Amino acid sequence: MATSGEAPESWYLALLGFAEHFRTSSPPKIRLCVHCLQAVFQFKPPQRIEARTHLQLGSVLYHHTKNTELARSHLEKAWFISQQIPQFEDVKFEAASLLSELYCQQQLHTLEKDLVSACDLLGVGAEYTRVVGSEYTRALFLLSKGMLLLMERKLGEVHPLLTLCGTIVENWQGNPIQKESLRVFFLVLQVTHYLDAGQVKSVKPCLKQLQQCIQTISTLHDDEILPSNPADLFHWLPKEHMCVLVYLVTVMHSMQAGYLEKAQKYTDKALMQLEKLKMLDSSPILSTFQVILLEHIIMCRLVTGHKATALQEISQVCQLCAQSPRLFTNHASQLHTLLGLYCLSVNCMDNAEAQFTAALRVSDLTTHQELWAFIVTNLASVYIREGNRDQELYNLLERINPDHNFPVSSHCLRAAAFYIRGLLSFFQGRYNEAKRFLRETLKMSNAEDLNRLTACSLVLLGHIFYVLGNHRESNNMVVPAMQLASKIPDMSVQLWSSALLKDLNKACGNTIDAHEAAQMHQNFSQQLLQDHIAACSLPEHNLISWTDGPPPVGQFQAQNGPSTSLASLL
């Protein structure tokens, strides 16, 4: 122990020397190194030494132990103390650099679903960047916080935060690429927010701005003048990654709106870009982008009558998830949901139920409430088609009652819940009740250009009017349903509409029109039947039996032929 008259530098340098000796020993004696550094605080050192020692402790703990919480605590103390000391930038920025690295490696707690801690840390970052006068990096922190608040569905906090971010982004004058990248981040959050709420029509102006913004970025050169503020030397995504992200949100919008050919076009562009990027870049975010794109294109294929291709792409998602446990954890529920939708399309009701049940079991309701509602809606459709699951069905419908306390804010999912109620009432012969639900679906889907829901509602209303003998009103529903289904294109609705048109024209004595509709129905039936047989003959069809554990990549066995009923297609 140093005497009271000894200069502070002497005892400090002695303890620092011991600490460095223990750190560089072979093997390192980290516990003794930490004890030496902690002993510095017993001397009540000046602020400069206190800050530097916190930095050294944080660095040692971060690099040599798993105690990230204690490392973070020391680094944050180093950073806060260094703010009060003039001309002490080396400690200030090294602490900030290590903190940012620690936050990134810990994925801001989001991998552990600790979104509250993540938001707090981002708030610390935003405050730091405000102190050092970096409005650009402050916007990055605030936008990241907005993203987490969206995940938590804290919409009351999201709106003022996005408003503030919009002001910062528009007022900031600096590197053109950085400014445009901020605008992309901001607009991606806005578009995602609209799409989560199922507001497909309302989002169009923001989506158009986003697409224009990415076009602007693609014309800018990376060799622009570097920012003068060191705290501005951050970039949230390379511009090539941003292009893929913009393609992705465009696909999401096209899917919800029912523009499936457009969705397929943008998916193809994005996947080609990803393949090129993955040759040079092993960033995990590229695999995440790829999986999300495949998830959307698979749903497209199932609607457009390309089940065999969809099944092979589901297998591709399985392979990607098998290569990354973290990716599988984040997408297991979506993967089972896709298999459930495939099972529905090939009339494997027992397997569909098992897949949707598995999807619910592994889903995280805290951050995937819309996915949960989507799964429950589709599981309800399984029970309706099976016809003997009344109690389970009513239990589900109580959880997604569109008239009372609907669990999510999504306009699209609430409209779908009305459709499911209408479908049930139709099968139960309660036609007036069915019409009420379906008209509510039509009102909501027309308001936000939800074309596929509109087509489904029209054809079901047409079927109800046909059963009631009101052929004229039935025709008024079925004709636009067929036109819309052809535009999407939705093979199942086209099959259904053509069957109704055949019966309607036959009942009205329109022999030529009835023959034409019958021919259309035959063509659709043959296309769907051939695709059905092709899909069920693939070895990947065995995936429908997988409901637990990691995806069974490489365990597919070829089948002798399809084992599912074709009756629903004919």
From TrEMBL:
<keyword id="KW-0539">Nucleus</keyword>
<dbReference type="Pfam" id="PF10345">
    <property type="entry name" value="Cohesin_load"/>
</dbReference>
<dbReference type="GO" id="GO:0051301">
    <property type="term" value="P:cell division"/>
</dbReference>
<feature type="compositionally biased region" description="Polar residues">
    <location>
        <begin position="556"/>
        <end position="570"/>
    </location>
</feature>
<dbReference type="InterPro" id="IPR011990">
    <property type="entry name" value="TPR-like_helical_dom_sf"/>
</dbReference>
<dbReference type="GO" id="GO:0007059">
    <property type="term" value="P:chromosome segregation"/>
</dbReference>
<comment type="similarity">
    <text>Belongs to the SCC4/mau-2 family.</text>
</comment>
<keyword id="KW-0131">Cell cycle</keyword>
<keyword id="KW-0132">Cell division</keyword>
<keyword id="KW-0159">Chromosome partition</keyword>
<feature type="region of interest" description="Disordered">
    <location>
        <begin position="549"/>
        <end position="570"/>
    </location>
</feature>
<keyword id="KW-0498">Mitosis</keyword>
<protein>
    <recommendedName>
        <fullName>MAU2 chromatid cohesion factor homolog</fullName>
    </recommendedName>
</protein>
<dbReference type="GO" id="GO:0005654">
    <property type="term" value="C:nucleoplasm"/>
</dbReference>
<dbReference type="GO" id="GO:0007064">
    <property type="term" value="P:mitotic sister chromatid cohesion"/>
</dbReference>
<dbReference type="InterPro" id="IPR019440">
    <property type="entry name" value="MAU2"/>
</dbReference>
